[in-house]
Amino acid sequence: MHFSISLPGLKEVDIKRVEEVGGVIRICVEMERKIHRCPSCQSRTSRVHDYRIQKIQHLKLFERKTQIFYRRRRYVCDCGKRFSEKNTFVNRYQRTSIENQAVGIRAIKGKTFKEIGDNYGTSATTIVRRFDQLARSEVKPVEELPPVIAIDEYKGDTREGKYQLIIADGITKKPLDNA
Questions:
Q1: Of 4-18, 39-53, 161-175, where does the model show the most confidence?
Q2: What pLDDT shows up at residue 61?
Q3: What gap in Å lies between CA 172 and CA 150, rounded to an integer?
Q4: pLDDT digits over 69-83, tens only?
Q5: Would you tell me how many other CB atoms lie within 10 Å of the CB of residue 87?
Q6: Tell me, what DSSP letter sits at residue 174?
């Protein structure tokens, strides 16, 4: 069975089955079979070694938690190297979809990491990790201090310590540094 519906972040996949189990929407997907380039020897191959089912957390659909069951194809090359097919919706070694990166944006605007984790069906630790990734990309080295500086300290138990400090430009409200 082939669904012609297009879901956010799943434009290049074949949706095989959609079902609701215990308030969770399960979407079973598979990529189209293509010729892939071996990461080791760079030769092209279409020989399939095996299939693995990968469970991925996705964005909520209709206010229900959503899981993707991705039937990941693994190829084998003549050189003996085995590798997974390339896809556009989940990064290597990850269990959340790329579309679920909205969690990071919500982590900035949300009240607490635990509340956001509960809303997205993940742990507060995952939310903190996403927040840290976004913070690293936003905080740039400062060449010159602005005329107004805002300093805020807050309690947050991380590997760096129990309390954190953020220094921001008091006019533009952009962060300058955090510790």
A1: 39-53
A2: 77
A3: 10
A4: 999 999 999 999 999
A5: 19
A6: -
- Rounded to two decimals, the pTM is 0.63
The confidence score (pLDDT) of residue 75 equals 94
Q: Which residues contact 82 (CB under 8 A, 6 or more apart)?
A: 49, 74, 75, 76
Which strand (E) or helix (H) includes residue 128? helix 124-138
Q: Using DSSP bridges, classify how beta strands 24-31 and 64-76 pair: parallel, antiparallel or unpaired.
A: parallel
Q: How far is CA 21 from CA 18, 24, 25, 26, 64, in A?
A: 10, 5, 6, 7, 11
Of 99, 153, 108, 164, nearest in space to 134 by CA = 108
Provide the token pair at 26: 């399960």
- Edge-to-edge, what's the strand order for the sheet holding 161-169? 149-158, 161-169, 175-178
